[in-house]
Amino acid sequence: MHIWQWKQWEVSWSSCGNDEESSIAVLLIHGFGACKEHWRFNQPELGKLTTCYAIDLLGFGNSSQPRASLKGEKKQLKDFSYDFDTWALQVADFCQEIIQKPVVLIGNSIGGIIALRASQLLKDHCCRVVLISCATRALDDKRLIDQPQWVRLTRPWLKKLVSQRWLSRNLFRNAASPGVIKRVLKQAYPSGRNVDKELIKLLEKPSKRTGAPESFHGFINLFDDYLAPQLMENLKIPVHLIWGKNDPWEPLKIAQHWNASIPCIRSLDVIANAGHCPHDEAPKEVNPLLLKIVQEAI
Q1: Most CB within 10 Å of its CB: which of 55, 160, 185, 219?
Q2: How far is CA 118 from the centre of its chain?
Q3: ∠42-104-25 over CA atoms, to 5°?
Q4: pLDDT digits (tens, 9 = 90+) for 25-82
Q5: DSSP state for residue 123 in the 8-state scheme
Q6: How would residue 22 be classed by pLDDT, with cut points 50, 70 and 90?
Q7: What number of other Cβ atoms are within 10 A of residue 193's Cβ?
Q8: What domains lie within the chain, and their CATH numbers?
Q9: Using N-to-C axis directions, what is the helix angle for 178-188 and 197-207, rounded to 10°?
């Protein structure tokens, strides 16, 4: 594990492999509530091909967990905006300062949104993006038209409620309990494969840190931020989709629609009997796909 000083915060990262002759590198970006170790079955395999990095986003893993700053609030000196622009800037700066060569960005869930936004910031220094069960952000205000009328009517009340720090802290305390983590994993990994003690520990440990509730507070208040199709609209680099067929939160039909309608998307691979984290639930099926995509970029 390494620490990179980014602005006034510490960012934890790891690397595997050391192919100095390769023209590119790979950066793995985890999803909400996860960390760089969530790529435990993928990073070593990708490291056989080229240098593969994994990063802890601010608020997660072993990176700093600063106080959340919401829109409209008075910002304190070391506050952090838990939004896709700021996370993407963290990723883009990491690529430029630490990796220092063109990258393939691979993101799971919200890590996919961050990868897409970071690719825009990096421009020619990003050569591929891989979205693994990318977050479709059903609760974003821009998708309210897809929601029932009662959801649209209660949205102002919901926003006001979840902006209360006392509520978000209580919600987080409940969500971070071992019992709830296990129940969520049973949903996310419908086959039950690789839901082991190591996985539970790597997800539970960061949640016990003092600042852990802050990223939760910031994230649940993101009601107006980027959507993946918006970021891909004018993207010139190839984008590849890998999706768990039984993802309980991000329907496969959305990925199929993206694949049929967005020009930059070059492939959609569906992983049978896998859910929201197919890279960890079914690495034997996912790793060959990732290796092929990276090989094509070299």
Answers
A1: 55
A2: 12
A3: 80
A4: 999 999 998 999 999 999 999 999 999 999 999 999 999 999 888 876 667 767 888 8
A5: G
A6: confident
A7: 15
A8: 2-297 (3.40.50.1820)
A9: 120
